[in-house]
Amino acid sequence: xxxxxxxxxxxxQELTEDATRAVCPRGHAFDRAKEGYFNLxxxxxxxxxxxxRDMILSRKRFLERGYYDGISARVCEHVxxxxxxxxxxxxxxxxxxxxxxxxxxxxxxxxxxxxxxxxDISKDAVKLASRRxxxxxxxxxxxxHMPVATESVDVAVNLFxxxxxxxxxxxxxxxxxxxxxxxxxxxxxxxxEVLYDTPYKNTVADEALAGFSLLSTEEIRYxxxxxxxxxxxxxxxxxxxGYRTPRAGWxxxxxxxxxxxxxxxxxxxxxxx
Length: 273
Ligand SMILES: [Zn+2]
Prior knowledge:
Structural class: alpha/beta
CATH superfamily: Vaccinia Virus protein VP39
Distance between the termini: 33 Å
Shape: globular
Radius of gyration: 19 Å
CATH architecture: 3-Layer(aba) Sandwich
Helix content: 25-40%
Strand order of the largest sheet: 5-8-7-6-9-10-12-11
Number of strands: 12
Strand content: 25-35%
Bound molecules: zinc ion
Largest sheet: 8 strands, mixed
């Protein structure tokens, strides 16, 4: 039996896990899927949650072509800078685990031992994340009621997932770090200019979070050339614009062989006070 920061989603008591399942003291049991993850989402029978499989596969292909390596490199630098030896990292809304696996590699490269937990509400995404790295301890779970023990996490990471600041505050240890990434004003603006008659720029949310002090904030900004129609379709599908875009927008995008896009992200580094 191994301890985990995941807790029982029924009674919120601690879980212990072995090769086949996780159980709580009251006997609620969760089978481990063959890919290695636990499904801790109680409402699963209600239908499909989170991104669908096509969106997830598009994101996986797009990210693996390297267009967002400038983001993952900087995120990994921050994780290495803040992660204590033997610490616990939680990637909230980790999707198919692209960034989490990069963090695992970066920590391993500097000889930092760590436990990396990653969850997402989409089971299809979690399956892919589980296969991506044996280092990741994965679960299907929602971000607004995380089945994660209180004060169990040293570094929490939220890359473009919905923000659940109170839950993040609860699961972090005193002095723990929260790394948040959000799209900045110009992010993907040239794509929106192709898709829409009146494109708008992103607005960046208020940086103050209750219970946290802001240690630093920075912009990541560069341009990338998305090359080929398959990559352009993947880009559109992985964004929220995919299902919002009218047919005329898709057709305009398909008249391009490649598109120069601005990548423009803001990182916030918070400390739990
Ligand atoms: Zn229980």
